[in-house]
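re: ur question from the group chat, yeah i did fold both. here u go
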Amino acid sequence: MGLAYSIVAALALWIVGWALGAKALDSFLVAALIIIVAVTITMLGQFSPSKRRR
C-alpha cells in the first residue's frame, strides 16, 4: 500500500511543481526519484531478516 501512496504523492508533487512554474521535466525527475526509491524499498523489503522463513 505504501507504493501506491508514494506514486500518488509523486504525481501530485509533479503537478504542483509544474503549476508553480518549475519545468515539467524537472518536476517529473523529482517524481521519478520518489517512485524509484519506493520501488527499491519495496523490492528490498522481501530480503529483510524479519521476512525470512526458517
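okk and heres the other one u asked abt
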Amino acid sequence: MGKYNGDDHTQDENDNHSDQLNPNNDTYWDDRGEDGRPDDWEDQAEN
C-alpha cells in the first residue's frame, strides 16, 4: 500500500482520512473498537 495522496481523493474522503488519524475525533476511536472518544482519550492516545 502506497503513501496516502490527498490529490487522488474527494474532500470528504480526505476529511475522513484525517478524522481516522486524529485521536481528538470520535471516528479515530470508533475505528479502534471503542464506543466513541473515551473521557481519558488524551492519556490513551499517548500510549
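fwiw on the second one: The mean pLDDT is 90. The chain has three helices and no strands. idk if thats what u expected
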